[in-house]
Amino acid sequence: MKLKEIMHIVERYLQDHPHLRDDDNKLIASIWKHHLKNQFGFAIHNMSSIQLLELIADGKMINAQSITRARRKLQELVPAYRGKKYMERMAEAAKVKSEITKM
After folding, report:
1. Quick check: 14 and 73 in contact, CB under 8 A?
2. DSSP strands (E only) in the chain
3. Residue 77, class by beta-carbon neighbours within 10 Å (0-12 exposed, 13-18 middle, 19+ buried)?
4. Which of 12, 15, 27, 82 is most buried, taking the most CB atoms under 10 A from its CB?
């Protein structure tokens, strides 16, 4: 799946589900659940963990890193998509950056 498509999907989830803005694991799980149903016709509760792992290993699922990368970029560009923890993460990142430059 192309990055532009992933950005669109992630943007829709950030708009429609504000509770996903601060939790990458829930965001990934929600997107994968939707993807499984729409792309493969699977209901997540009817799948085995082996089936899911095979889809991930075969690259048929949307890459989790691409989802989180898209979320970070969208939150950087669109303040309305930022969750409650966004400013905490930015403050922590600045602190780590400062510590690294002192080395």
Report:
1. no
2. none
3. exposed
4. 27
